[in-house]
């Protein structure tokens, strides 16, 4: 039976834990799933919750060097780590069973992607995924294995001829771009805070793909403190046109919610309401272009109580075709759990109270506006390579 949405979840996924004080706190996922359960989303007809097995070494090696996988295994078994490969650094410290925990995330994204491709599910969601910084031979930016790259490689091996990857995390999706830099079958699109002010320091408009795949990397580097209206205008001006032009058979998206104004690591000023709207746009785009084949992944997001649970519960609701009304009050039982765990109150509703209003690009280019200039730079660099007019929709 075809499910409406294949949701990757098991408490074992909380084992991906770099330790106390690390921003990538597994509690953000625990609170998200608790909130989704409290709102009844995981019990809806058509929602299939699947606990994945860890990806095998052979599956990991579709995106990673065998020596790197071996190094992660060694560290997991009590080895000292390998800082030259990013293992045992401040960003990616060694923790017990690190290989198994990271491989389980990959297994979840891979299984979700294949379920969507095979028609066993319309949409797939893995909130623990989106580890977009991991490189073929190194951990990076809290990411040990690159689940998005493995999932896309699995789609290609299963027969997909064109896959689009759209990343709206505050940080550039550098690892996924690297994996498919010279592969004309994969379009990577990243909308992020500029690498001039934020890790990983890449993702500029002139990064447009390798010699065999010109135009298949699209990067929109936004100035710090870009807020709702400008962020929405920028996403709309770039993402839908390039995805439509590429005409993918599957859309894979990364929904890091560290774009939020309260995120402690990045410097964008976006609301949960704007994040919810962009998620709905990407869902609708999958139905328009890919016959609904959509794989949605989590990613960054370090406002553990105030942002992540709400943003990703909205994602689950949209994927289940049961969007949560932003005016919904937080369930009393969930609020009590937050007080018990954190000794503080949670946000009162699923909204920040933002209007998420924006102006379409067709209203005209403002050369005095920093965000408009960033959009123009991206359109000028990438659009002609995809057969699009950079000046007009």
TrEMBL record:
Q: In which pathway does it act?
A: Ketone degradation; acetoin degradation
Q: Which domain of life is it from?
A: Bacteria
What Gene Ontology terms describe what this protein does at the molecular function level? histone deacetylase activity
Span of domain Histone deacetylase: 22-316
Q: Which UniProt keywords apply?
A: Acetoin catabolism
- Which InterPro entries is this protein grouped with? AcuC, HDACs, His_deacetylse_dom, His_deacetylse_dom_sf, Ureohydrolase_dom_sf
What are its GO biological-process terms? acetoin catabolic process; epigenetic regulation of gene expression
Q: Does the keyword Membrane apply?
A: no
| PANTHER family listed in its UniProt record | HISTONE DEACETYLASE HDAC1 (PTHR10625:SF10), HISTONE DEACETYLASE HDAC1-RELATED (PTHR10625)
Family stated for the protein in its record:
Belongs to the histone deacetylase family.
Protein name (record): Acetoin utilization protein AcuC
Organism of this sequence: Cellulomonas pakistanensis
